[in-house]
Design brief:
Length: about 400
């Protein structure tokens, strides 16, 4: 009897422990529900940006339906903090929200659309410093739209095929006018003349490959650094290449290098941009007037991070092409806070074509044949960059 009693007690404790663990797991699951705190809209040139604030990382699905046109966002394990309200605009004609059907836990948001649209991009933002909310950002565009099929779910659609429009490259010949840049030790070559000649040669080669090419300057004029960035943005550049030639007291120093924006410099620039009064045209022509400063900081920083990653990818292609043709410095891909690299929405690099303080490199840079060789390497790198699957899918 004592043995049986002891067994019963052990079984009792096993069941009790199991029950407690089950209840704790259930409680944790229940508390993990995502609380949707707010929904915001921001107008863009070709559509609208939708931002959802939530307490947890989003488990979501977003798709388009036709007849009539509407955007559907399903949020799994979500509850409302307050009943959501969405204002009508030139794309959204109505809004409604309800529980997910078929016993699923969560919410469904339905945005009724005036016209057909594409989901241009969607991404999740984790909480930033001093913030607690997760953010789902979705860009809805009316550019290049197609009629949605009658299938219940339509996958996210991208922009029109990249082959349907020419990629835009903006070349920036460094210095100019009253600013000669570096001056060669042996032949007194002005950097501003080398960069302009190199820009003209590169423009010719890129256009021959089907790219649309603009230059920040095509004559010997002075342009402030910030203006060069503004010019690139005015052309809606897909890639920005600033051309320079280096100089140092060490006459033996030689080799080509390429710079992209450093992470620290980018963070500071994002903060400075976010504090500006006029933010309506910082990213994709987006109107930030209805957003909080915190959202503006995150969106600008996100765009700059994406551009910095793409810049590094292009820099890698340049290094790979150049090392087969010319001498490079050690660790040729470098990082710095050059002002011309700080466009938040344009992948940007600065190429130091060589040292004017070195006899051989100054002599080479003065030769059209050598500049043609450099242009061939950069052109091939540009082609590889735009053919990169990750880059092509984002354009």
């Amino acid at each position: 009897m004592k043995t049986c009693h002891l067994i019963n007690i052990k079984n009792f404790f096993r069941i009790a422990v199991w029950a407690i663990c089950f209840c704790l797991a259930f409680a944790q699951g229940a508390s993990a529900s995502n609380v949707i705190k707010d929904i915001r809209l921001g107008n863009q040139n070709d559509g609208v940006r939708i931002v959802l604030d939530g307490s947890e990382k989003f488990a979501y699905d977003a798709f388009l339906l036709g007849n009539p046109s509407r955007l559907v966002i399903d949020l799994k394990d979500a509850v409302w903090q307050n009943a959501p309200k969405v204002s009508k605009n030139n794309i959204i004609s109505g809004f409604r929200a309800a529980d997910l059907s078929q016993g699923k836990k969560g919410k469904r948001l339905v945005f009724e659309l005036k016209n057909n649209a594409n989901i241009k991009r969607k991404f999740m933002l984790e909480p930033q410093a001093g913030q607690k909310n997760w953010r789902l950002v979705l860009d809805l565009s009316t550019s290049g739209t197609v009629q949605p099929s009658k299938a219940p779910v339509i996958k996210t659609q991208a922009r029109p095929s990249p082959q349907k429009r020419k990629k835009i490259v903006v070349l920036d010949p460094g210095h100019g006018g009253k600013d000669p840049g570096a001056i060669g030790r042996s032949f007194k070559t002005y950097e501003k003349n080398i960069t302009l000649s190199m820009g003209q040669e590169l423009k010719r080669q890129l256009e021959a490959k089907g790219f649309k090419v603009y230059m920040t300057r095509s004559t010997d004029i002075f342009i402030p650094l910030r203006k060069r960035v503004a010019i690139a943005r005015s052309y809606h550049a897909d890639l920005f290449i600033s051309l320079h030639a280096d100089s140092t007291l060490n006459r033996k120093a030689q080799g080509l290098s390429i710079y992209t924006l450093s992470e620290n410099a980018s963070d500071k620039e994002a903060e400075a941009l976010a504090e500006r009064e006029n933010k309506a045209d910082i990213i994709d022509g987006m109107d930030f007037s209805d957003n909080s400063p915190e959202i503006n900081d995150v969106l600008i920083s996100l765009s700059q991070n994406d551009s910095r990653n793409k810049s590094s990818k292009f820099a890698g292609y340049v290094v790979n092409e150049m090392k087969q043709r010319v001498k490079l410095v050690s660790n040729a891909h470098k990082f710095a806070g050059f002002a011309v690299l700080k466009a938040p929405d344009i992948p940007s690099v600065l190429v130091e074509l060589g040292y004017l303080s070195n006899y051989s490199e100054e002599k080479f840079l003065r030769q059209p044949a050598y500049r043609k060789k450099l242009g061939e390497a950069i052109t091939k790198a540009v082609m590889r960059y735009f053919n990169d699957p990750e880059v092509a899918s984002a354009l």
